[in-house]
Design brief:
Length: 210
């Protein structure tokens, strides 16, 4: 795909809702190991609500779609992840402004803004065993592919690949942020649920852009 439009982003979010629903139990299981077991249900509730809103609203720009996603996630996901993902989508919306279409450079810029939002809100750094461990390498990969002249699909597939590896990298880590940090050393040996959901989302967006 050469560029992303409001309708292609809405379709990517519908696919994301489906993927999150399919992985609901996996995310619950991961969060049960080092948290309170609600991440899968929280995300499923948020993305399901988002699809209902997308289905009943005609939105003209990518920024408007991202803003609707943000406000729905903020009001429906709850927990730590709701405000973090909400901020991510809100910053992405602000970064694309009222552009009618997003090219590869703007997609990379939106991902960078999303990461900045998550970090501003949650104050986590790489190695704290959070979604930041998936999103940070994803943004770096997206930027380097965009700078090299890659298209939207290759930017997103590089981001998805890096996010998968970043999520896997959380397994041996001791959590320093969020609920898992209450476990101290016992949080090691488990995949962070938020890093996993971030990787799932980016994989879905990459698939949608192909
Ligand atoms: P809660 O922990 O409130 O139940 P969720 O289970 O929905 O919320 O989300 C947990 C996920 O949120 C974690 O796996 C982690 O990736 C992410 N998270 C928690 N705190 C932070 C933070 N300060 N910065 C970034 N991500 C965080
Ligand atoms: Mg939880
Ligand atoms: Mg909770």
């Amino acid at each position: 795909m050469a560029t992303c439009t409001a309708s292609s982003i809405a379709d990517a979010l519908r696919s994301a809702a489906q993927v999150i629903t399919e992985h609901r139990d996996e995310l619950v299981r991961l969060d049960r190991e080092i948290g309170d077991g609600d991440h899968g249900e929280n995300m499923k509730r948020g993305f399901t609500a988002m699809v209902s809103k997308l289905d009943s609203t005609e939105l003209a720009t990518p920024g408007a779609v991202l803003k609707l996603a943000a406000s729905t996630l903020i009001s429906t996901v709850g927990g730590a992840a709701g405000p973090l993902y909400g901020t991510a989508f809100l910053r992405a919306a602000a970064a694309v402004g009222d552009a009618a279409e997003l090219d590869a450079a703007l997609v990379a810029k939106a991902l960078q803004a999303a990461l900045e939002g998550v970090v501003a809100r949650g104050k986590a750094v790489v190695g704290d065993k959070t979604m930041v461990d998936a999103l940070t390498p994803a943004v770096a990969a997206a930027e380097s592919v965009a700078e090299a002249g890659g298209d939207v699909a290759s930017v997103l597939s590089a981001a998805a690949e890096a996010a998968d590896q970043g999520a896997e990298s959380t397994v041996p880590l001791v959590a320093r942020k969020g609920r898992a940090s209450y476990l101290g050393e016992r949080s090691a040996g488990h995949l962070d649920p938020g890093a996993r959901s971030t990787a799932l989302l980016l994989r879905t967006f990459a698939g949608s852009a192909r």
